[in-house]
UniProtKB/TrEMBL annotation:
It comes from Arthrobacter livingstonensis. Residues 263-452 form the Carbohydrate kinase FGGY C-terminal domain. This is Glycerol kinase. ATP binds at residues 12-14, 268, 312, 316, 413. The gene is glpK. One of its GO terms (molecular function) is ATP binding. InterPro entries: ATPase_NBD, Carb_kinase_FGGY, Carb_kinase_FGGY_CS, FGGY_C, FGGY_N, Glycerol_kin. Residues 4-253 form the Carbohydrate kinase FGGY N-terminal domain. Belongs to the FGGY kinase family. Inhibited by fructose 1,6-bisphosphate (FBP).
Length: 504
């Protein structure tokens, strides 16, 4: 009987379940989008109950498409949108508020308050992160401070917190009937609360934020058996055996196991991760220090990360808010109707600027407009914004590591866009390489679970599964590359200093 691993990929816009075989190939998949809730400017929320219900449904879809049952599945891996905070009542299983999404900027006042003593890098040496609205910690504090009765319940020990990995695992393993409240080191490293060296919650920082330690999940490795699926569900008794935050999962799925190995994921946002081995490297160029993965009892592997808030979601904005296109793939065809961007640059600082600037006062800007410009130029500028932002985080990674990257492995939904990938190679000046299996986020979670249950032997075996599908090489003249980057950097400056007391 053939055996398989199933990965649950709980992402920013959808939840998916993907079944993988031993060669790392996709056997079947189920996917459901969930509502994006925007109560106010800068606020982004999800309904955590909708996410859980969708997760159960996509598991059933993936199994039924391949005519599989729980007996065919040896393990469940979880990957998830990191930093998206869920706080729920452990007695009822009901969230006390919507999940606050990683893109949400409502907690800027909390950031400013905490940064008044020591600046935004107040905790960075210990946790690897600057104070920013991006991370889970400020979102938990906001819920406790603003949801009626939440703080009293938390202090009584009745509330639990988790990124969406913890929420899904708790429900999978029984919820109010004995659900396991855990997270892995990669997700824990995105809260502002985990000491990178000890891999434990820092009680002093929790106290400064006013977050009871009783809310926090137990920190586990990325690959071990945490529990089994609860008896009433389709995958009942199947081991839940792997958790990796989405970007670390993509790095794992790209088989970037060696120090210096790197990948760039093109999703709602873009995320470049560079494996730094067992060494904690503190960035001097605006990158984050994070945990790459930890396999069972082995030592943790660390990484530098360049996080870009808005890339794929800029294309969604053209579709949903402006109505310029009816589906995301149409943007490539629209961009092809023009020879260049017509002098237009789009800086999509919808949630401020993330790496390498970390400017919460920035907001989106379209610059260089003339009467010559049409929607083709806007579409092209939107695609190019992704490539320009990636170049800036790659430059930062090269500066921190002291070694220039020779090529870039890419994955995520946007890598199907040939025009974007060619421009990416052009603006980087190095080859861009797409693997045969581009669903590397789900694959990484499957790998983590499969290693824990012995489905795969070791990372060497996983590395043999990776194979190249397509390579784009630079064709742009170096002088033109430099000109484009100069104009891009000029455009970025136009997005800054926008938010003040009168503009939120």
């Amino acid at each position: 009987m053939s055996q398989y691993v199933i990965a649950i990929d709980q992402g920013t816009t959808s939840s998916r379940a993907i079944v993988f075989d031993h060669d790392g190939n996709i056997v079947s998949a189920g996917q459901l989008e969930h509502e994006q809730i925007f109560p106010k400017a800068g606020w982004v929320e999800h309904d955590a109950m909708e996410i859980w219900n969708n997760t159960r449904e996509v598991i059933g879809t993936a199994l039924s498409k391949a005519n599989l049952t729980r007996h065919d599945i040896v393990g469940v891996g979880i990957t998830n949108q990191r930093e998206t905070a869920v706080v729920w009542d452990k007695n009822t299983g009901v969230p006390v508020y919507n999940a606050i999404v990683w893109q949400d900027t409502r907690t800027q006042a909390i950031v400013d308050e905490l940064a008044a003593d020591g600046g935004v890098e107040r905790f960075k040496q210990k946790v690897g992160l600057p104070l920013a609205t991006y991370f889970s910690g400020t979102k938990i504090k906001w819920i406790l401070d603003n949801v009626e009765g939440a703080r009293a319940k938390a202090e009584a020990g009745d509330l639990l917190f988790g990124n969406t990995d913890s929420w899904v695992v708790w429900n999978l393993t029984g919820g109010t009937d004995g659900g396991v409240h855990i997270t892995d080191v990669t997700n824990a490293s995105r809260t502002l609360f985990m000491d990178l060296e000890s891999l434990s919650w820092d009680e002093e920082i929790l106290s400064i934020f006013g977050v009871p330690k009783s809310m926090m999940p137990e920190i586990k490795s990325s690959s071990e058996v945490y529990g089994t699926v609860h008896g009433s569900q389709l995958l009942r008794e199947t081991p839940v055996a792997g958790i990796l935050g989405d970007q670390q999962a993509a790095t794992f799925g790209q088989a970037a196991f060696e120090k210096g190995g790197a990948k760039n994921t093109y999703g709602t946002g873009n995320f470049l991760i560079v494996n730094t081995g067992e060494e904690i490297v503190h960035s001097k160029n605006g990158l984050l220090t994070t945990v790459c993965y930890k396999l069972g009892d082995a030592k943790p592997v660390y990484a530098l990360e360049g996080s870009i808030a808005v890339t794929g979601s800029l294309i969604q904005w053209l579709r949903d808010n402006l109505g310029m296109i009816k589906s995301a793939p149409e943007v490539e065809e629209l961009a092809k109707t023009v020879e260049d961007n017509g002098g237009v640059y789009i800086v999509p600082a919808f949630s401020g600027l993330f790496a390498p600037y970390w400017r919460s006062d920035a907001r989106g800007a379209i610059v260089g407009l003339t009467r010559f410009v049409n929607k083709g130029h806007i579409a092209r500028a939107a695609l190019e914004a992704t490539a320009f932002q990636t170049r800036e985080v790659l430059d930062a990674a090269n500066a921190d590591s002291g070694v220039d990257m020779e090529d870039l492995r890419v994955d995520g939904g946007m890598v199907a866009n040939d025009a974007l990938m060619q421009f990416q190679a052009d603006i980087l000046g190095i080859p861009v390489i797409r693997p045969k299996v581009t669903e590397t986020t789900a694959l990484g979670a499957a790998y983590a679970a499969g290693l824990a249950v012995g489905f795969w032997k070791d990372t060497d075996e996983l590395a043999t599964n990776w194979s190249e599908d397509k390579r784009w090489v630079p064709k742009m003249d170096p002088a033109e590359r430099d000109r484009q980057m100069r104009l891009w950097k000029k455009a970025v400056t136009k997005s800054m200093d926008w938010v003040d007391d009168d503009v939120k």
